[in-house]
Amino acid sequence: MKAALQRFFAGDVWYSFRHSPVAIGAALVAAVCVFCAVFAGWVAPHNPFDLATLELSDARLPPAWEEGGQARYLLGTDDQGRDILSALMYGARISLFVGGVSVLLSVVVGVGLGLLAGFVGGRVDAFIMRVCDVMLSFPPILIALLIDGAGRAMFPEAAEHLAFAVLIIAISLSYWVQYARTVRGSTLVERNKEYVQAARVIGVHPLRIMFRHVLPNVTGPVLVLATIQVALAIITEATLSFLGVGVPPTQPSLGTLIRVGNDFLFSGEWWITVFPGVMLVLIALSVNLLGDWLRDALNPRLR
C-alpha cells in the first residue's frame, strides 16, 4: 500500500493535478459538497426532515442578509419551515448516493458486456451491439421515465427503499451502453496484442485472460467516462425528481427541492429554488471539470 502511494505521488497523474488550478479548484468544491452531504447529520444546523422540530411560523423566511431573515436560517426556509441550508446537505446526500450507485451499476454491466463482446466477437458481439443500438435510439431520460413508471405501476405500494432501487436501475440502464461500446472498442485492439496471444499459447483460460490481462488495460477510458457520468446521473435523478417520479417525497433530493421551490419562484421566494439549483450546478460542474482533467491526464498524447 505504501509503495503504491509512493508510485502515485511520483507519477504523471499527480504531477498533472498539482499543476492544474482548475482541477484543484474543482476537487475542493467537490470535496466540500461530498463532505457536507456525507456528514449532514453532524454538519447541518438543523434536521429539515424531523417533523417535531419544524415551525410553520418560520415558513418562507428570506435569507439572513435580507429584511425579515433570521441568523439561524442562513439561506432562509421553505414553505414547510425547513432550513434551506440543511435541506441542501441532506438533499445532496440522496442525489450523490443515487448518482454514485447508478454509475457503479452501469460500469459493472457495461464493462462486463463490452469486454465479452470485444473478446468473444461473432454472434455474441453482434447481439450485444444491436441491443446497444436499440438503447441509443431512445433518449436516456425517456428510458429512465419508462422504467421508473413501470416499476411504480408494478409495485404501487412499494416501500421507499424499493423506490430507490427502481430509480437506480432506471438510471443505470440509461448509461451502461457508453461503457459497453467504449470497452468493446478497446478490447478489440487489446485482444490482438502479443501478451494476449502469448497467454493463449500457454493455455491460460479465456476468462482469466479477459479479467486479469485485458481488463486492466481498458480501464483508463472507463474511469474518465465514469467520472463524467456521475454528474449526468445526478442531473438525471434531479430531473426525474423534478418531474415527480424520483425519490420519495419524504426524502427529497435536490431535484425535489427545486420542484417545490418552483411553485414559489414567481411569488418572490426565489431562495427556495435558486439555492438547490446552485448546489446542483456546483456538484455537476466540479465533477465534469475533474472528468475533463482526468481525460487529459490519462491521455499521453496531450501531455
Automatic annotation (TrEMBL):
Record membrane topology: Multi-pass membrane protein
Annotated InterPro entries: BP-dependent_transpt_permease, MetI-like, MetI-like_sf, OppC_N
Ranges for domain ABC transmembrane type-1: 92-291
Membrane spanning stretches: 21-44, 94-120, 127-147, 159-177, 214-235, 270-294
Keywords, comma-separated and alphabetical: Cell membrane, Membrane, Transmembrane, Transmembrane helix, Transport
Compartments it resides in: Cell membrane
UniProt keyword Transmembrane helix present: yes
Pfam families recorded: BPD_transp_1, OppC_N
Family: Belongs to the binding-protein-dependent transport system permease family.
PANTHER family in UniProt: ABC TRANSPORTER PERMEASE PROTEIN (PTHR43386:SF26), OLIGOPEPTIDE TRANSPORT SYSTEM PERMEASE PROTEIN APPC (PTHR43386)
Name listed for the protein in its UniProt record: Binding-protein-dependent permease
Taxonomic source organism: Sphaerotilus microaerophilus
